[in-house]
Design brief:
Aminopeptidase, alpha+beta, 5 helices, 155 residues, globular, 7 strands, binds coenzyme A
Length: 155
């Protein structure tokens, strides 16, 4: 079957929304509203198989040299098939083109990111994230997600 990776289309918004929220109900991702998916649709990459979204990830710029990798998810049937790696590689490639210094993610799956060359970090070393979003989160400061980062400017 043919897969292709590309930027998300607006018509794929509901599929992305459903995929993220499937994993959110399992406690692995933060939930997103359909409105948030549409507002941020230009951040998203998807992998498609026969025009169906089988994986997604978003690269969201947070500062002049920093971006967050968000909402990375793969459908159940296609886990461990390399699509997570493909999406992270694509976001890192875009980060290089944008001349970012660093990309970070907050995750319950740090080992996946470490496999791809990312490192665990203290979330407090990401002040832009803390100022913007963490302070408003009901879980702050007792967040159980682990911060992982990759330095782009040394790749
Ligand atoms: C985490 C997730 C995105 C990984 O995607 P995937 O397509 O299954 O992963 P890949 O097949 O690309 O794996 C790449 C490598 O990471 C490893 N890996 C994948 N998930 C892992 C995990 N949870 N723990 C440790 N290693 C993992 C794989 O074994 C593979 O290593 P290899 O190249 O030596 O074989 C996917 O499991 C998923 O959708 N999880 C639910 C949502 C989620 O937790 N997202 C991350 C939070 S931000």
């Amino acid at each position: 079957m043919m897969q292709n990776l590309g930027r998300a289309k607006l018509s794929e918004g509901t599929e992305i929304f459903e995929l993220i929220n499937l994993w959110a109900t399992r406690g692995q991702l933060l939930p997103r509203t359909l409105g948030e998916v549409y507002e941020n649709i230009r951040d998203f990459y998807v992998v498609r198989e026969e025009n169906k979204v089988i994986a997604c990830a978003a690269l969201h710029i947070t500062w002049g040299n920093l971006a967050e990798l968000k909402s990375i998810a793969v459908i159940d049937e296609k886990q461990s098939s390399g699509y997570g790696r493909m999406l992270v590689d694509q976001c890192v490639q875009e980060g290089i083109e944008l001349e970012l210094s660093q990309i970070f993610a907050l995750t319950y799956q740090p080992k996946f990111f470490e496999k791809l060359g990312w490192h665990q970090a203290d979330v407090m070393s990401l002040p832009q994230k803390v100022w913007n979003e963490c302070y408003r989160c009901p879980k702050f400061p007792a967040c159980e997600e682990i911060a992982v980062t990759i330095d782009i400017n040394v790749l």
